[in-house]
Amino acid sequence: MKKLINRERVILYLCIGTAFLLLWIFYSIANHPETLPGRVLNEVWRVIYITAANYFFFEYSLPRMGRK
User: Fold this and answer.
1) Per-residue DSSP letter, 33
2) Most buried of the four, 25, 26, 37, 48, by CB within 10 Å?
């Protein structure tokens, strides 16, 4: 039976999301240190949203588009 969620893929997407979060937070620290708490909160929800959207698109939607 095929698993619904592949553990290795979820870990991959979480690592990629963490890397993007760290890059965006570093950018915010470097360019806008006065508004850091608000920007960090904004970056966190953005990473959660983008990572979830990418996971569902690349793991479910895109493979189904290629089927005949």
Assistant:
1) G
2) 25
Confidence at 6, pLDDT banded by 50, 70, 90: confident
Please check the confidence at residue 28 and state whether its pLDDT lies above 80.
Answer: yes
47 burial (CB, 10 Å; 0-12 / 13-18 / 19+) is buried
Token pair of 5 as six digits:
């969620």
pTM: 0.80
Q: Which residue has the tokens 């698993």?
A: 3
Distance CA 34, CA 15 (A): 28
